[in-house]
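Lecture 7 notes: from sequence to structure.
We start with the chain below.
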Amino acid sequence: MVTTNMTVEQVNRALSRKRIKAKALKIIANVFIYFVLLLMYAPLIYITVFSFTDSKVTGQWGNFSLNNYALLFNTSDFETAKIWKAAGNTVLVAVTAALVATVLGTLGAIGIYYLKKKWMKNSLDFVTQIPVVNAEIVTAVSLCVLFVLTAKFLPRSFVTLVIGHTVLAIPYVVMSVKPKLEQMDPSLYEAAMDLGATQTQSLFKVIIPDVVPGILTGFLLSITLSLDDYVITAFTKPTEGGFNTISTYVDAVTKRAGLPTQLRAFTAILFAVILIIMVVMNIKSSQNAKKLIKKEKNKND
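Predicted C-alpha cells for the same chain:
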C-alpha cells in the first residue's frame, strides 16, 4: 500500500511539474509574441502620436494641432508636392511592375508545369527560387552592373526601375500560380484539345480561368513587394530628373534635413487606411467562413 501511494504521489508530482512547465512556456511564448508586435508597431504608433502636434522636432510634444494634416493637403507647399509626387511614382511603378510580372510569371509557371523533361523542370524550379532566398542587395547590384553595361542603349530610367521590380516579383508570381496548376485536373486541357480547341484557346479558356486565384495572389504580392522595396529602387531608379519613390524620398530627406512634419501625417493616414482594409477583410472572411459552415450544416441536416 505504501509503495502504491508513493507511486501515485510521484505521478501527481510529475504531472504537476509538466503543467507548470507548459504554463511557463506558454507565458514565455506570449511575452515573446507581444514583444515582437511592440517592436513592429511602436514606430508607427510613435509617428502617429506626434503627427498631432505642432512641434517641428519629432519626439518633442508642443501643442495639440492638426496643422500637419492641413499642410499635407496643401499642394502649393513645395515639400508636400514632393511627397505626393513620390507617392504617385511609387504606385505607378508598383502597378506597372506587378502587371508585367503577373503576365510573365503566369506564362512561366504554365511553361514549367507542362515541361516533359523532368531535369529541365527541376532546374527551372530551382532557378526561379534563387531570387527569393537570395539577398536583395545581390539582385540590386547585379541589375545595377547590367544597366551600367547597357547604358548606351538602355540608360537608367523609369524602364530600368520597372525591370528591377519585375525581376523581384516574378518568382513570387510563379510560386503563387504553380500550386493552382497542380490542383487543376490535367484531363481538362486534353479534353479541350480533343474537342478541337487550339493550344491558345485551351490556354485562355481552360487553364487560365482555373488558376485565376493564384494569378490574383501573385499580382497582389507583386504590388506589396514593389511598394515596400528600397534596395532595388535605389540601384535602378533614374539618375536624372529627381525621380523618387516614397522610400527613396524619405531616405534623401532624412539625410538632408530630417522628416518633414507633413510626412508624419502621411504615415498616420496610410497606416489607418491599411488597418481599416485589414479589419474589413478579416470581418468579411469570418462572415464567409460562417456562411460556409451554415451551408454544410444545412446539407448534413
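Points to note: The chain has a mean pLDDT of 86. The chain has twelve helices and no strands.
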